[in-house]
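Why DUF748 domain-containing protein? Reviewers of the renewal asked for a concrete example.
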Amino acid sequence: MKLKFLRHKWQKIAFSFVLVPVLIVFIIALILNHYLAPILATQVREAVLTGSDSLYRADFTRAELHLLEGKVTIYDISLIPDTALYNRKKGQHLAPNNLVTLHVKKLILKHIHPFSYYFRQRLKINEIILNEPELNVSYALNHTQDTVLKDRRTAWQKISKSLHSISVDHIYFNDVKFKYEDYSGHKVVISTLKEMNLSATDLLIDSVTQTDKSRLLYCKDIVTELNNYSGKTDNGLYDYKIKHLKLSTMYARLNIRGLQLQAAKNDLFFNKSQSDSFTLGIDSIQLNNFDFLNYHKYRRLRASSLELANGALRVFGNPHKAGQVPADKVSTFPNVLVRNTDADLTIDTIRLKHINVSYSEYNAETKKTGSVEFDNTEGEFHNVTTNKASIAKNNITDVHLSSYFMNRGRLDVQFLFNLTDADGSFNYKGSLSPMVANKLNQATVPLAMLKITSGNIKQFNFDIHANSKAFKGRISLLYNDLKVSILEADTANNRLKKQQLISIFANLFVIKRNNPDAAGKAPRFADVNYLRPKESPFFKTVWRTLLQGIKECAGLDEKSQQAAMGRLTEHKKNKQERLVRKAERKKRRADKKAAKEMDSH
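Here is what the prediction returned.
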C-alpha cells in the first residue's frame, strides 16, 4: 500500500532528504552505543583507581550507553577497597579514617549533554540515581588532622586538562542499607540503618568551586534522611527509637523528631546496675551550625547550639541494697560526667523548651515511691565542652533554668559547674515563688512520713556550694500557718497511718507555725552542711540538701527533733508512771474493800 502523502515527486525527494540522515544518525548511534560502552567501562575503572590513589577499584557487570536519550545505565557496581594497601598506609599514618565498601544494583545517569562535553569540554548531567545501594563504612582514628599528601591539587586541577567543569543537578540514593563499624573506642560499635535516603543537589567542580568552603564534596546541599530507627544499648538496659532524622549540609543543621530512650523495668534494671534509671522522650531536637565534615573525619562534634523542645526526663533513684558495697556515684554529677566522656564535643549553647523533669525515689521503710517534679522547664546551658583547648579558655559551664515546682511555684535556679576540679565542685542558687505547702506531700509523705495539712510558702531561697564530699550553704524558707501529721508504716494493711499523739505534740512543741514568728521579727534561716554519702547521686543529693534546710527552717532539724522526742519520751514516761500509780491506788482500794468484807463475815 502506497503512502497517500507521497503521490508527488517533490514529496518523495523531501521525505528521502529527511529520512536518510535520521537513519544514518540512528545507525551511528547504535554502533557508538555498542563500542563506546566498553570504553566507558574502562574509563570508569581507571578513574576510580587513579582518583583514590589505587585504594579503591570499581567493578560492574555491564554498562549501557543510550546516546540519543543521553542516558547511561551501569549494573551491579561494586566499590571495593584494597585492604592490603590500606593497612600499609595505616602503618605510614596516611590511611583515611573512613574505609568504604559500596554495592549498587543499578546506576542511572540521565540527560547527559554530549555536545557540551564534546565541543566545550563540560560534563553536564541532570540526574544520577543509585538504586538499593548497600554501603558499609568502618571508622578508625588513624590521624587527628588532615594528612599531608604529595598531590595537593584540587579535584578541578586534576581534571582541568581534559574537562573545564563537571556538574550534576541532582543525585539520589534510594533505599540505602547502611552498616557502620566504629573501631575508635574500647570495643567495636556496629550500627545498621534501614529506611534511609540520601540526596545531593548542584554538584559542581570548576575553577570557582574548587575553593568554595560552603560546599561539601562540591555539592551545594547533601540531605540525609532516616526513618524509624531503633536499637538497644550495649548493656541491654535501654531501648532507643528515632522517628525521623534529617541532616542538611547546606544549612549545617541536624533535626531529630520523636527521640525515645526507655529503661528496662526497675526490677531488671536495678539487678544489673547501680546507676539511676533514666527515661527520656523529646519531640524535637535541632543541632545548629553542625560541622559535619569535622565530625565525619575526626569525631569532633562542633555546633553553635542544641535545641530540645517538648519532652520529659524522668529519673528513678537506685535504691541502695543492704549488704551491697556501694559505688561512688560522683560520676552522676554533670561536670564529672562530661569530663569522663570520651567524646570530643563543643556546643556553645543548649536550649530547653517545655521539658518536664521528675526525680523519684523508693523508700524501703514505707514501701512507697516519692517524686519531686519540675514542670515546663526552660533555660540555657552555656559552654558545654570536653575539648581541652576550649576548657583551658573557660572551665565553667553556666546553667540558667526556670521551672514550675510541683507544677505550682515558679522556680528559678542557676548552676555553675567547674569542668576541671578533681572534686567535681559546683554551685547552685535559686528562688521559689509562693505556693501551697501541701503540694509537697507527694514527696514528703512516702520519703519522710510527714504530711503537710496546711500552710503557705511565701518565699524559698537557697545558695549552695557543693563538691563530691559535702554540700554547704544557706537556705531560707518563709511561710505561715504550717501544720503537719506524723505518719508511721502500717505493714499489716500496707499503708501509712497518722500517729495522733506525736502529731499533736509536733504541732504544739516542734513545728514553727510561721517564719518569721511574728511581724517585725527577723526570719529564721538554715546553714546546712550535708555530707554526701558516696552512693548518693546528683539529683538525690541536691534534693536531700534542700530538704535538710527546709526541715531546719520549720523547726524539724535533728537537734530540735531529738529534744522534742526527749520531751515526748519523758511525757510518755510520766504518763505511764501516773497510770501505774493510779492502778496501784485502785488495787489498794480494792484490797481494803475485800478485807472489810471478810472482817464483817
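Residues 400 and 533 are 27 Å apart (CA to CA). This is the kind of structural detail the renewal will allow us to pursue systematically.
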